[in-house]
């Protein structure tokens, strides 16, 4: 087997294992771990065959485990780079223009929530019960995602929001934590919590004019951007968490 075939086997093994177990493979190879041990410890679905091919390629091409580890480490780094590469797309609610294809707000909101595997942070001014959003949030909680939503309150909006409290839109989602901006009305008499964003796992940020309502997602004209990778999603999430830590954002009691 040529070195090119070995390199292809290393790339295929990382692709099958994913980032976490790809790093584990690097560690096993660095320590001279056998094929049998690798197959026993690396249990990503469907990855066993790719790992076996890699070890067979190493043996046929006389590639030392430490050298193979270097190759695998390079492919893991390439995968990390691809994941963190910044991609920015526009998102709209409202009339479509066939000459300028864009993604729709309603679908992007659900996609970002469904993408989250660990943490979901959101901020909204207004909120109303929206079944598609409620289903996506409930499913996220069920798979273990920690969800924090910052909302405005009727008292904080000082008459500019009408009807029920925005927080009530999330009452049926178990485990979701609600927060509000705890400013002093005397110091901020005309201020509003007006941010609208959703951040998934600090890797994807949806930022725009749309509140978490069906009207904003499906009927109004709203505009936003979807940022995948890079520092913007991480920094947005870190800012929210820091506002929580400092007490600017406080838990909203039922």
What is the number of domains? 2
Please identify the top-level CATH class of the largest domain: Alpha Beta
**Main beta sheet strand tally, sense and closure:** 9 strands, mixed
How much of the sequence lies in strands comes to: 15-25%
**Shape descriptor:** elongated
* CATH homologous superfamily (4th level) name of the largest domain: Endonuclease Chain A
What proportion of the residues is helical, as a percent range?
40-55%
Number of strands: 9
Number of continuous helical runs:
9
Radius of gyration: 23 Å
Mean pLDDT comes to 90
Q: Report the CATH topology name of the largest domain.
A: Endonuclease, Chain A
Taking the alpha carbons of the first and last residues, their distance comes to: 66 Å
CATH architecture of the largest domain: 2-Layer Sandwich
Class by SSE composition: alpha/beta
